[in-house]
Write a structure and sequence with these properties.
Layout lengths: L3 E8 L3 H13 L4 E5 L3 H12 L9 E4 L8 E6 L15 H17 L5 E4 L4 H11 L7 E3 L3 H15 L6 E2 L2 E2 L7 E2 L5 E2 L2 E2 H7 L4 H26 L4 H15 L4 E7 L12 E8 L2 E5 L6 H20 L5
Parallel strand pairs: 1-2, 1-4, 2-3, 4-5, 5-6
Antiparallel strand pairs: 7-10, 8-9, 10-11, 12-13, 13-14
Length: about 325
Amino acid sequence: MSVNFRKVAIVGCGFVGSSSAFALMQSGMFSEMVLIDVMREKAEGEAMDISHGTALTSPMNIYAGDYKDAKDAAIIVVTAGAAQKPGETRLDLIKKNIGIFSGIMPQIKEQHCEGIMVVVSNPVDVLTYYAMQHSGMPDGRVFGSGTVLDSARLRYLIGNKLDVDSRSVHAYVIGEHGDSELITWSNANVSSVPLADFFALRGMGDTDLKEAEKEMGNDVKNSAYEIIQRKKATYYGIAMSVVRICTAIMKDEKTVMPVSTDPKGAYGISGCSLSVPAIVGRNGVEGLVPVAISEAERNELSSSADVLKKNIASLGDAF
C-alpha cells in the first residue's frame, strides 16, 4: 500500500478536531482530508462547512468517512475524546478517554496504516503510549502533540516580557503535558543570549528574572485552566500546533520540537511517553536531541515520568 502524501485524516470532530481541520485546510498542505467521528452527521456537517470555503482558498476534497478511508493518509490526527471540564485536570480524563481509544486503535490497526499518527487527545502522554501499544504502527510513527503548545505559550510570554519577537526565543516545556510539566530555564535563551543576560539588557536583575520565571511558569501551566474557565474549551492554539507539527512532517523539516514519545532510556526514562526535544520529519520522530538540563530539572523530569507511569499502572488491564 502506498501513502498519499496529499491526504490527512482527522479522528474526532469536536472543537479541537474541527479547528484543526479548518486550520489544515487553510495551510494548503493537503488536497484531501477525511473526517471521522462516532457521530457521522457531525463529521458530515464539519466537512460541508469547511468545504464551502475552499473556493476562497485552494481546492481540497473534504469529506466524512470511515477508518478504511484513513488507510493511505500521510498523517492521522487523533483528537477524539471527552472534553476537559472546568476544574478537571488532564489526568482526570484518563479512564474516559482510554475507553474511547480502546475502540479507535483496533480499527486503525486493521488498516495497516503506513503514515504517521499524531495523538492530540488528552491526557496526551498516556493516550500516546496507549496508541503505541495498540495501533500496530511503529513507535517512531506514533507520537503526541505533547508540550509543543506549552512551549509556544512560554515563548509568547517571554517575548512579551522582554519586548522581543517570540520567534527569537528558544525555551522548552518538557515532561507531562499537564501539572507535572517543567520549564528548562537553564537553557532558555533569546537568539543564543542567555535569559539572565537578556534581562540585564532590558535593565532587569536577578530578582526580576526569578520572579518572572515563577510567574511565567505558573501562567504556562495554568493557561488551559484559565481559558476553559472563560470559554469552556481550548482549541485554536492546539489547532495551530497541529498545523506546525504536520508541516514539519510533510516538508521533512527535521525540526526540533518537544513532542510526546517514549524516551527509551534517554534522561534515564522509559516505560511511558512524555515530551522531550525530538527531531520531527517525514518519518515521524527520527531521534531525540539530548539537550543539556540542570540536575534539578533532570530530577523534575524523572518525577514527571513517575506521575505518568503511576497513572498508566492504575489502568491495569485496561491498558
